[in-house]
Amino acid sequence: MKRTSGFAALLMSAAVLGSCAQQPKAPDSPDALISNIMSEAAAAQTTKSPQTSETSQTTQPPQTAAASEQASAGAGSEVDLDLTVMNSTMIYSIIYDIMVNPDNYYGKSLMVDGYFDTMTDDALGTRYFFVVVPDATACCVQGLEFILPGKGTYPDDYPAVQADIRVRGVLDRYEEQGQYYSYIKADSVTTL
Amino acid sequence: MSDFAAKLQLYFSYPFVWYALIVGLLIALCSSLLGVTLVLKRFSYIGDGLSHVAFGAMAIAGILGLTNNMYIVLPITLISAVLLLRTGQNSKINGDAAIAMISVGALAVGYMLMNLFPSSANISGDVCTTLFGSTSILTLKPADVIICIIMSVIVIAVFLLFYHKIFAVTFDENFIKAAGVKAEGYNLLIAIITALIIVLAMNLVGSLLISALIIFPALSAMRVFRSFKRVIVCSAVISVFCAGTGIFTSIMAGTPVGSTIVVTDIAVFFIFCIASLFTRGKAK
Amino acid sequence: MGNVLHCQDIVLGWEGSAVVSGLNFNISEGDYLCILGENGSGKSTLIKALLGLNKPMSGMMIKPADMKAGDIGYLPQQTAVQRDFPASVREIVLSGCLPKCGLRPFYNKAEKELARSTMERLGIAELSKRCYRELSGGQQQRVLIARALCAAQKVLLLDEPVTGLDPKAQLDLYDLIAELNKSGVTIIMVSHDFAAAVKYASHILHIGARHQLFFGTTADYLSSDVGKLFEEKAVSENE
Q: Is B in contact with C (3 or more beta carbon pairs below 8 Å)?
């Protein structure tokens, strides 16, 4: 059930991307290709916080440094943000936070468990890959885009759709059609 | 144990966890203040009806794609609060049926609209979030927190300023009217604050569970305490305690926030039930 | 003796249709008026009119110029809400002072003192911290009378005050009301207790189906046809 809805959401995100392609300079188009499947969040992304590179650098809360320090210390792992040791409520919330305030997270290494999914933007002909994370009630899901080192070829270098995976990498962003999108620059993607 | 502490410290390094705690405690406080009055006035159903209306309004806001759905949800809920109150008082219409009609109707229309005009593809997710408030409390933005603080301060201030009037209207409306006090005005005030609280509380526990947040602390307090003031104070303490415990538990254990808070409220209710048996047995 | 209320050919209605008509009566300061009538005779509509919550459809209702809405202390019938209401006696009596507060959010010293002295006057001072729902029926009525007296010192309107009380408590309450009347409080009591009405009241207003049957002093009432008829009925009901 949740996976079906997640997939439907990914298709929906594709539609959003498609519209971006047509209106590259629309101020309310999504800034990040972290596809948020929760409608509220999607609304927040598309209409609430249009982030350009100018604005994105100005909103750096002081908590960021502390957060990452404690993240590595508390979790006792070598990544800044180890989502694999957290419970689903926190994972979901943090991913939402990454999406809303991506600037606090760029350059941080992170590790996250979820299931694999993929979609294609028909207008651009580009394929995107996601690690999808459901929330505690298992009714809302969010996806984080990741890019494999050297990109690889689909489907040979990728896990099966819906397979449980662990993605490890650094949060980064790229520019496409004048918008910034956040993604995980993956060091490794392992099937669990 | 140190592992637990480290985890706690880690989680609280995120500002959104603080936002959730602040907003959660404030909403719990506000809803418990009004809860006693609503339960005693037999208005519990208004809370329930309004929360369903708010759900329908949320669906409309979603379709319109408003940046802040407060602008739609708040006015619609306020108007419904006034209407529901009128219906409740009107002897011509069967108040019970009218309220059931409005509340269930709003629920159905809301769900229908969400399906017909999906603003995102994850309808089950939207519905789930609005009904059960899965994680929305943990996804608040600073602006939401400020709105919530302002509204809570208004609710608390109104409650304190009109405390004696609210008591009198709750205890005996007929007497107060006969004494030349405009009871309708205060009823309206109560309905409006209730609507405010419900719109706020949708973030915390979702619309299906709001009634629980409003009535359980009041019912628990009424089991044990015997003056209005003490019941209100006790209910506020219970509600804040349960909301705090609920939020901590859900963050640490990964359970859904809304239902964790309500389950804590239910647990406290049973403890107070047992306590009341004990104290009454002693008195006799 | 000052006039409290003068009603001349009043027609009372509810939502456009007349419920009771031809009401002619007069209440003076210090009176003990008992309004008798069967259920459905329009007593509750009359109460609303007396309290100023419901305007007569026609006729004249003359009140002294210095009398405002709320100058009649009201003892309503108990509602289901009150029976399990968590409130202390003091909280309830104080709420009688509420109309005096206006928009002021808290009670002042004078109002607290009024509540205290009224509780003393009605012999419920030692109950002040008790919970209302744990009191006996008679005690509860005393609390509500104290509240009504806080709201208005001169006139009390009591709606079936002894309903649901045991005989001893009924007697106590009637004695208390008579005592208040002696101390100068004008009493208007709605009742269907014929025996108590003719025993305590100075005046009787008897309403039949849709119109007034009798108004006058208790002595006149007892010698009137209506009074005799009702007396027989009351006696036969008691047997």
A: yes
Does any domain span residue A69?
no
pLDDT one-digit tens code per residue, B195-239: 888 888 876 777 777 888 888 999 999 988 989 999 999 999 999
Cβ-Cβ contacts under 8 Å, B164 against chain C: 94-95, 98, 101, 105-107
Per-residue pLDDT at C70 exceeds 80: no
Averaged pLDDT, C50-72 = 77
B171 and chain C in contact, CB less than 8 A: yes
Q: Does A163 touch chain B (CB under 8 A)?
A: no
- The domain B2-277 belongs to what CATH superfamily? ABC transporter involved in vitamin B12 uptake, BtuC (1.10.3470.10)
Q: Per-residue pLDDT for A30 more than 50?
A: no
Q: Which of B10, B127, B139 sits opposite A93 (nearest CB)?
A: B139
Partnered with residue A131 across adjacent β-strands are A116, A144
% of chain C with per-residue pLDDT over 90: 26
Identify the residue among B113, B130, B135, B140 best suited for mutation to test binding to A, counting A beta carbons within 10 A and taking the highest.
B135
Query: Residue C161 to residues B27, B168, B209, C42, C144: CA-CA distances in angstroms?
Result: 42, 20, 42, 17, 10
Contacts of residue B222 in chain C, CB cutoff 8 Å?
86
For B255, which of A44, A89, A94 is closest by C-beta distance?
A: A89
How many pairs of residues across A and B have Cβ atoms under 8 Å apart? 140
Instruction: Convert the pLDDT of each residue in A106-140 to its tens digit.
Output: 988 999 998 898 888 877 788 888 898 877 666 67
Question: DSSP for B198-239?
Answer: HHHHHHHH-TTTHHHHHHHHHHHHHHH--SHHHHHHHHHHHH
pLDDT at A22 over 60: no
How many H helices and E strands in chain B? Answer: 13, 0
* CB proximity under 8 Å: A 170-189 to B: none
SS3 of residue C43 by DSSP: helix
Instruction: Kindly state which CATH superfamily the domain C1-23+30-71+155-239 is placed in.
Output: P-loop containing nucleotide triphosphate hydrolases (3.40.50.300)
Residue A91 lies in a domain: yes
% of chain B beyond a pLDDT of 90: 22
E strand intervals along C55-127: 58-62, 72-75
Give me the domain span that covers residue A90. 2-21+29-45+78-191
**What is the DSSP annotation of B77-136?**
HHHHHHHHHHHHH-SSS-HHHHHHHHHHHHHHHHHHHHHHS-SSS-HHHHHHHHHH--SG
**Least confident segment among A104-108, B176-180, B278-282:** B278-282
On whether any CB of chain C is under 8 Å from the CB of B284, the answer is: no
Task: Note whether A139 contacts B62, CB cutoff 8 Å.
Answer: no
How does the average pLDDT of chain B come out, rounded? 83
Query: Looking at the partner chain, which of B164, B178, B228 has a beta carbon nearest the beta carbon of C51?
Result: B178
Chains with ≥3 Cβ pairs under 8 A against B? A, C
Evaluate whether B119 touches B68 at the Cβ level (below 8 Å). Answer: no
Query: What's the pLDDT band for C197 if we cut at 50, 70, 90?
Result: confident
* A63 located within any domain: no
Integer Rg of chain B from CA: 19
Among partner residues B13, B125, B250, which is closest to A5 by beta-carbon distance?
Answer: B125
CB of C105 within 8 Å of a chain B CB? The answer is yes
Predicted pLDDT of residue B274: 92
Distance CA(C18)–CA(C41), nearest Å, equals: 11
Chain A contact probe: residue of B4, B10, B18 with most A CBs at under 10 A? B10
What ipTM is given for this predicted complex?
0.85
Whole-model pTM over 0.95:
no
Q: With an 8 Å Cβ cutoff, are C86 and B162 in contact?
A: no
> How many structural domains compose chain A?
1
